[in-house]
Amino acid sequence: MAIEKMSLVNIAGLMDELDATLKRCCESGCFHIEPAGNSPDSAMKPLSEKNEYDRPLKELAQLSAQLGITLKETDFTDCDLSAPQDFNSLFEKYNTPFSELNTKRLELTQRISELGGAVRQIDHLKGMHSDFQQLFSMKYVSVRIGKLPVDNLPKLDYYDENFFFVPFETGKSFCWGMYFVPERDKQRVDDIFHSMYFERIRIPSYVSGDADEALEKLKQTIDADTVENAKINEQINELAAKAEPELQKAFSKMRFIHDTFDLRRNAAALNDKFYLKGFIPEKEKDRFDKLFEDMRSVSVVYLPPDADASCEPPTVLKNNFLTRPFTMLVEMYGLPEYKGYNPTAFVAITYTLLFGIMFGDLGQGLLIVLGGLALKKKLGAKISGLVTRLGISSMIFGTLYGSFFGYEELLDPVFENIGLDFLPLKVFKQTNFILITAVAIGVALIVISMILNIYIGFKNKDYEKAIFGCNGIAGLVFYSSVAVGLVGTLMFDVKVMSTPFVIFLIVIPLVCIFCRTPFSIAVKYKQWRLSEDEEKMTVGNFIVENFFEMFEFLLSYVSNTMSFLRVGGFVLSHAGMMLVVMTLMEMCSAAAQPFVLVLGNLFVMVMEGMIVAIQIIRLEFYEIFSRFYEGGGKPFEPVGVKFTSQTE
Known about the structure:
With 648 residues, the chain is of the alpha+beta class. It has 21 helices and 12 strands. Strands 2, 3, 4, 9, 10 and 11 form a 6-stranded antiparallel sheet that branches. The chain has a 4-stranded antiparallel sheet with strand order 6-7-5-8. The chain crosses the membrane at residues 351-375, 387-407, 433-456, 468-492, 498-519, 564-584, 596-617.
């Protein structure tokens, strides 16, 4: 897999053609714009114009939201509006009647809410037959209506004050009623009731009659206001239905004009000329040229991608059908630089292989494949494709393990009939083989990662990385030699670790790694220096710094290799969890066994499937990617109008 080749594009023309040029760049769908005129030596200066469509765009979006219109991208070819004042006129056309109706609606809603509160308050005072207005108009006596905690009701008898309390309704926690007190004593009595947690109810001034009459009048008023409010809502809905087609087209067109105008900030100008620059994929040259054939004042010039040192070419990963879904994993770590290495194919192979090994089950893998295909619209093509490929890998290794929804013996007759005695692989009977194989896979992947690092290092003429680094030739020789020596000695009882073997394949590579910086400088510059900045590096500092780095390198070799034990661990874990499911099923009645089998398989698929997927990402990023891959690339972002109803 490779990285798409790019071309640097310089576009120049008359200022009158700038908007039309930007529009065609957006329509191309392949132009990655770069700020022009950002060089201090350039005579052309960037444009810094205020976008006059900002306010109309926000107003139209706000009005649509208030009318309950969900904005969506709409064909606006027959929309004649273009200038900001045109969109302002359209806004006023519908905003004026809506504002009048909305004001009435808000007033009615507020009044209904207030009346409802009054009803809830007065409902507790049904036993009162006095007129509210007469009660509150008394000159020498004050009246307080409210609720008192039931526990405090007997305490009123202990106070020798000039008041009396009239209860109307007593519930479990509160007693609603009112007390009368002479005007001259109200402050002292109010303090007493306040200390007993009396909560006063404020009766609105418009309430008249006794409690029953007041309730009836309030409910009639609420009913009338509710009917009126429903009529206003209906009128607003009619207005929205009438306005929606026009607002949809107007907003879509204004969004296009607004976003295209924003791109002017990337253009530079000198007198009556404009200048744009950006990148397009090399394969799009002919199609891009045709967009400007009828614009004689506009010239389009193509240059090599590295012709302008002020801008870095963007990265587009070039992948085939099989590996494309795994692009998202590479993007999670970071895109490679334009001249870097595209690891998508390597990730696709290793991720698929590791998932199948760690989650091998023919039946569960089949469900994963079917689930990925069924949820393609909901998950998206990339995730669906990734899930489908992982499911196929799970099916393949599930067949090798002889596992079908936890039934480990189901496929045995199949292998016996075709004469494969060593299959299926019984997990619990070959535990050591599985763990050793997991470590061997880890060693192989680490070695391949080092080879990739060497290739990338030579490609970029980075000799420290390619030859002397811990992941270069020196690191590869050291790691491979130690691995071969340990395997030969411990597993095959072959004395590989001879003196020449240790000196030439272990000690010398370690010395190269330790002195990687001065060795690489000697190769590159034909002179001996301890570091690129020799003034800041003494011999003592060099020894101490590289000693600890060597310790870190050696530790990483061990830890990274041992990390792959988790591959074998999850093989055993998956088989163990399914064994638990089968045991529980056998303990249940015949009627319950199918439910236990289905629920158990679903639980294992969801829980262990997610854990395995995350663990493989960890292996990819920490044990594999860290040895050869560097992100830092710039994503390819072609200009265009990304329609959204949100405005800044």
